[in-house]
UniProtKB/TrEMBL annotation:
Family designation: Belongs to the NanE family.
Name of the protein described by the UniProt record: Putative N-acetylmannosamine-6-phosphate 2-epimerase
EC number assigned by the record: 5.1.3.9
Biochemical pathway: Amino-sugar metabolism; N-acetylneuraminate degradation; D-fructose 6-phosphate from N-acetylneuraminate: step 3/5
Superkingdom in the source lineage: Bacteria
Gene expressing this chain: nanE
Functional summary from the UniProt entry: Converts N-acetylmannosamine-6-phosphate (ManNAc-6-P) to N-acetylglucosamine-6-phosphate (GlcNAc-6-P).
Amino acid sequence: MINLESLRGRLIVSCQAYPGEPMRDPHTMSQVAQSAVIGGAAAVRVQGLADIEQTREAVEVPVIGLWKDGHDGVFITPTLRHALACAKAGAHVVALDGTRRHRPDALTLQQTIDGLRAESDALVMADCGSLDDALAAVAAGADLIGTTLAGYTGEREKTVGPDLELLEQLSAADLGRPIIAEGRISTPDQARQAMQAGAFAVVVGTAITHPASITGWFVNAVEAP
């Protein structure tokens, strides 16, 4: 089991490629993860069983693993079966949908976490969308609380940049769990703001590991009238 204190005040890099992209390859993603670690990442977050397996072999930092299945509703490690598979693939931390929404296998979040603990020593990161989600996830036994789904579940407006208000709410609630800021963090300044708002650690993905999006940002700036 990893020492969560090793992540305090640190950067976690999400290494994911979208379906159909040239970089959507487990070996490529493991190389991206290695590069992130060279740059100072304290942990990496990867999607897909093969990506988890290869990244676990390629880096010595904690691997946060998830399995996206679908595109709408609950699709981030949506069932106990998905969670167990991520743990078996080698994830130190299994990231899963931590909202209060109905899960595809009809299990509650607590039943999912209990089922995972019964067969694995992996920690659980609950990807939440609101303060109420976070409170429920803590009660269900989650080890880390992420703001990953803020603005995507209908409970909160999607902010430009990270949802700093939610981070402040979570910090003030004294959840007794590390709060991981994730979602729409595109600049070092935004990452710093997330830490100042109470985050334990910050996850950055697209702005570091998604060349198509980064290229698009520069194209838009260069070609602007």
